[in-house]
Write a structure and sequence with these properties.
Low-confidence stretches of chain B: none
Order of helices and strands of chain B: EEEHEEHEHHHHEHEHEEHHEE
Mean pLDDT of chain C: 82
Number of strands of chain B: 12
Helix content of chain C: over 70%
Shape of chain C: flat
Number of helices of chain C: 13
Low-confidence stretches of chain C: none
Strand content of chain C: under 5%
Structural class of chain B: alpha/beta
Chains: A mainly alpha (about 280), B alpha/beta (about 325), C mainly alpha (about 350)
Largest sheet of chain B: 8 strands, mixed
Mean pLDDT of chain B: 85
Number of strands of chain C: 0
Oligomer: heterotrimer
Strand order of the largest sheet of chain B: 6-7-8-3-9-10-12-11
Chain lengths: ~280, ~325, ~350
């Protein structure tokens, strides 16, 4: 509780948390509150905002507002799923290597560094561009999670390594606990706050990576995502035509969500890492 | 005409100004004087103001620390109240120098020993010749018992803990300071190294490289071995100041008695005496305190102790801050 | 001999690691695209074979198969046939070896879309644009960002209070979002800068004043979209690092010794740079990726657009060629940063030298 009170004192936490909650609410409650229809044409291509279409229409004459909410849902979905996968894989690799040390640690570190240095976007391009079947949101999320875990692995490993040296871990080992037991009972609990922060960053990365891939034309086949909205705006020259409703809202949503997550993370860091407190 | 004391602190008061406008009087009227060749030990619990006293004595007032009033003189010249740049150039490291705790993070990890020493010398005398400086460093380090060839070109990470602390002492005393303030210089060091460090300090004093010393510690054996006189500090004030024998074995002020009691019991031969921890906690220095600061915890307190401000009295040739001490 | 040269040992160690990484990258680059789809020859044949009879079609197909190293060829360049008269396929293994050899020579294969153009030809035109955009933004952005961050940490006060939120914002916005913003505000609403392209359409690339000045004009918005973000990101990080350094024991001790202010700032900067350089190694790949996407927003004629066009037309050789090039460049940059760290951090040298 005390932790939460400290958090609430930070303006950055309030800002980040509320902004993110806003976007989350929009995504979750949107379809319930507003009448959304992404399939029926409500007007001509690129019509400006009106009473019928609050944010105008896209290049096919579909309601932009509906597309936006739907896109937000997709982007958040990919972000969360990719973030979860990346965090789980990264934490597993990081904790195992950090705890075991020695050869296993060295091997895992080499592996991690290898994929850290090779740009994940490149790997994603190589995989996605050669996929035959349609790219679904889940598949994209999986791919992003599978290529961006290296960051969390590195971060978690350093923490796990330092915890390994603590007395209670040595005691547990003497008492005969196996690796799984020690990790679950003696290492993970201390890492929870850290892992949570890592998850926030990985989610933001997931959202951004999906948008980047969509901009490259490697977005989801059948669904609409915020990145895909931007991609279509670019391809159909909405950008140069000044049809701001076709790209600005999507851009604002991406920026707001990612910014909220980063600021949230910074505020958490301020509380969990006293070194940085002024 | 008598020579002025090498180090004279007169009714020194220093305070912290917090963000919320609160004034914390961490040092509240400390006075003492050192003769050439003298070592004054300072003992006290953590939070008594020792660390603040160090900065205050050196004239180093970096906000939120400010000088309230009082004076500090070295060889009769005041070192307080000058601008930051003059204080840096003329006082710090030159007239008054500090030896930090043996915690050994005091050396910049990315700087060779000789480079740090050179930085220090050049900061006080920018016309000095670099080549000449290296020669001086070599000479000085050899003189104080450090292998110049090994040490000068090394990075801190390459030196063992004990050697690092001796290097720190070497650097702090490069400019032959008149007063050296050693703040727990042997904490976190093993016994053999402690002995070497103390030995080194004594040698420096004998060679007159150091003029006089303030030795801050919480370890009784050290206090006894090193100091000729001892001052006991509590809640920003000195409560007793006398010779080593007087303060340790014949203390007159209740706090001193309690403090010595809690420290003495750790001595070999004193195991029969039960350890006496001092109950309670020091007062909050955020507001003006009425009466004796130790009254809350004093086993000999009398009703009017909390009412009357306690002034220094001379009791049996020592200074004591207690109206009922004798 | 190596024992006496700790720096050399460090460099060779890192070089070996990067070589391994490069090989892994090439392997990924080779195998991933081939894991799924149609072979490039089919795509070309679909375009080319209309109106050809079976015999000619087969001959043409064989030509292409030879070109794309999908069938074995003997010393005279003739297709090797099996017992049944059909051409023998090159094994995946030998394809890989050939690919490796070709890549090291700089030959990245032939394009499918723009056949018979070679991939290297197509990429060559785009490289200078990407280089011109990314090199200055990343290098200068990194330097300036770190200096500003150090200043904010040291000065604190008003400067920091104003600077910090701005830098935080800049560090959190994705490059392409910022690019969109810039295009909208400065190119569409207020037509101060051009919205798309690398240079005026009417001009042809040449080292002439009119061309160069046009290119410079078109350079501004794309440059800012990446530069400001790099500055923001670096500043935030450096600021934290410097705040930490300023609170260390060694800074306190240096102050007590009377060491000059400027010298102490130098200590702070030098020591805070090290983790920043390490961080650079990690984030370089991301920065380059982000900059490539930003190029797309501006239709800037660099590798970003090349990859985009290649993806849109399924021109796999170009995709993989670009990917390999980008990866190699990132690896080289990382290696350089690694070397710098090795040189600047005496602890590494000392530890390597062996105590």
């Amino acid at each position: 509780m005390k932790l939460f009170k400290n958090l609430l004192k930070q303006p950055s936490f309030i800002f980040g948390a509320s902004l993110f909650l806003l976007t989350l609410l929009l995504a979750l409650l949107g379809p319930l509150v507003f009448h959304l229809d992404t399939k029926t044409r409500v007007g001509l291509a690129y019509m400006p905002p009106s009473a019928k279409a609050w944010l105008g229409t896209d290049h096919l004459g579909l309601d932009m507002f509906s597309l936006l909410i739907q896109g937000l849902r997709s982007s958040l979905y990919v972000g969360f799923v990719a973030g979860t996968i990346a965090t789980v894989v990264g934490t597993a690799v990081g904790v195992y290597g950090g705890y075991k040390g020695g050869l296993i640690d060295d091997l895992l570190t080499v592996l991690t560094n290898l994929f850290l240095v090779i740009p994940s976007l490149i790997v994603l391009i190589l995989i996605s561009s050669s996929l035959e079947e349609g790219r679904s949101l889940t598949l994209i999320a999986l791919l992003i999670g599978a290529t961006t875990w290296t960051w969390s692995a590195r971060a978690v490993r350093a923490q796990a390594s330092s915890i390994r040296a603590r007395d209670h871990v040595a005691l547990a080992r003497i008492n005969g606990y196996g690796t799984a037991g020690i990790v679950a009972l003696h290492i993970l609990p201390y890492l929870l706050s850290y892992i949570f922060m890592v998850f926030i960053i990985q989610t933001a990365t997931g959202i951004l990576t999906e948008a980047s891939m969509s901009l490259l034309g490697l977005g989801p086949y059948d669904s609409i995502s915020l990145g895909k909205i931007l991609n279509e705006a670019k391809t159909n020259e909405a950008l140069t035509d000044g049809a701001w409703w076709a790209f600005m809202p999507a851009m604002v949503l991406i920026t707001a969500t990612v910014l909220a997550l980063y600021v949230l993370n910074t505020s958490l860091e301020g509380v969990f890492n006293p070194r940085l407190r002024k | 005409m008598a020579t002025p004391p090498i180090f004279e602190v007169n009714k020194l008061r220093a305070h912290y100004l917090t963000r919320f406008g609160q004034t914390i009087q961490a040092v509240d009227g400390v006075s003492f004087a050192l003769k050439e060749g003298e070592i004054l030990g300072i003992a006290g619990e953590s939070g008594c103001g020792k660390t603040t006293l160090v900065s205050a004595c050196m004239g180093l007032y970096i906000p939120p620390l400010h000088l309230t009033s009082g004076d500090v003189k070295v060889d009769g010249q005041s070192i307080i109240g000058m601008d930051v740049e003059r204080n840096r150039k003329d006082v710090l490291g030159r007239l008054v120098s500090m030896i930090p705790q043996g915690a050994l993070n005091s050396l910049n990890p990315t700087r060779k020993v000789k480079d740090l020493a050179t930085d220090m010398i050049l900061s006080h005398d920018d016309k000095a010749d670099k080549k000449e400086i290296t020669g001086r460093l070599r000479e000085r380090f050899e003189k104080i018992g450090l292998d110049a060839n090994l040490v000068l070109d090394s990075y801190p990470i390459q030196l063992p803990a004990g050697m690092k602390q001796r290097v720190v002492i070497g650097i702090s005393t490069l400019l032959n300071p008149r007063v050296v303030i050693a703040d727990e210089p042997t904490s976190a060091l093993d016994v053999t190294t402690q002995k070497a460090v103390i030995r080194m300090l004594f040698d420096l004093m004998d060679a007159q490289i150091i003029g006089s010393m303030l030795f801050i510690t919480h370890e009784l054996p050290l206090l006894r071995h090193v100091s000729s006189r001892i001052a006991v500090m509590y809640a920003g004030e000195f409560v007793e100041l006398g010779t080593t024998e007087q303060v340790i074995f014949d203390s007159r002020q209740p706090y001193t008695k309690a403090l010595m009691g809690s420290m003495l019991s750790a001595e070999p031969g004193q195991k029969s005496k039960k350890p006496v921890a001092i109950e309670g906690a020091p007062p909050n220095l955020g507001h003006k305190i009425k009466g004796c600061r130790f009254a809350e915890r004093c086993p000999e307190a009398r009703p009017d102790c909390k009412e009357n401000q306690q002034l220094i009295r001379i009791v049996k040739e020592r200074e004591v801050r207690c109206q009922y001490a004798e | 001999m190596l024992k006496n040269h700790p720096v050399l040992k460090h460099i060779l160690g890192r070089a070996a690691w990067y070589l391994v990484t490069f090989l892994v990258a090439v392997t990924i680059n080779f195998f991933l695209p081939r894991m799924g789809k149609a072979n490039p020859v089919d795509t070309i044949m679909a375009k080319v074979s209309a109106g050809l009879d079976t015999k000619s079609a087969n001959a043409v197909e064989e030509q292409y198969l030879k070109e794309f190293d999908l069938v074995q060829v003997d010393a005279h360049g003739k297709v090797v046939r099996g017992r049944d008269g059909k051409a023998l396929k090159t094994s995946l293994g030998s394809q890989f070896v050939n690919y490796l050899g070709m890549s090291l020579r700089g030959d990245l294969g032939g394009s499918i879309l723009q056949h018979p153009k070679r991939v290297s030809e197509i990429i060559k035109g785009a490289i200078p644009w990407t280089l011109a955009l990314q090199l200055p933004t990343i290098v200068f952005g990194w330097l300036i960002g770190n200096v500003l961050g150090a200043l904010a940490a040291y000065k604190r006060g008003v400067f920091d209070k104003l600077f910090y939120p701005g830098a935080l914002l800049m560090s959190a916005i994705p490059a392409f979002c910022f690019g969109i913003l810039l295009v909208y505000w400065f190119a569409i609403k207020r037509e101060w800068f051009p919205a798309v392209g690398g240079y005026d359409e009417g001009l042809t690339p040449a080292l002439s004043i009119p061309f160069l000045s046009s290119a410079a004009y078109y350079y501004v918005l794309p440059f800012l979209s990446v530069f400001l973000l790099v500055v923001g990101g670096q500043a935030i990080g450096m600021r934290s690092m410097c705040i930490y350094e300023l609170g260390t024991d060694y800074v306190k001790y240096a102050k007590l010794l009377g060491v000059k202010e400027n010298k102490i700032l130098y200590y702070m900067f030098r020591n805070a740079m090290l983790p920043q350089l390490t961080g650079l190694a990690v984030s370089l790949g991301t920065m380059v990726g982000g900059a490539l996407i930003a190029e797309i927003i501006f239709s800037y004629p660099g590798l970003g657009m090349t990859i985009l066009t290649a993806i849109q037309s399924n021109d796999y050789p170009v995709i993989t060629g670009c990917c390999l090039l980008v990866t190699t460049t990132v690896l080289i940059a990382n290696f350089t940063a690694d070397l710098l760290i090795g040189l600047l951090d005496p602890r590494i040298r000392a530890v390597q030298g062996g105590k």
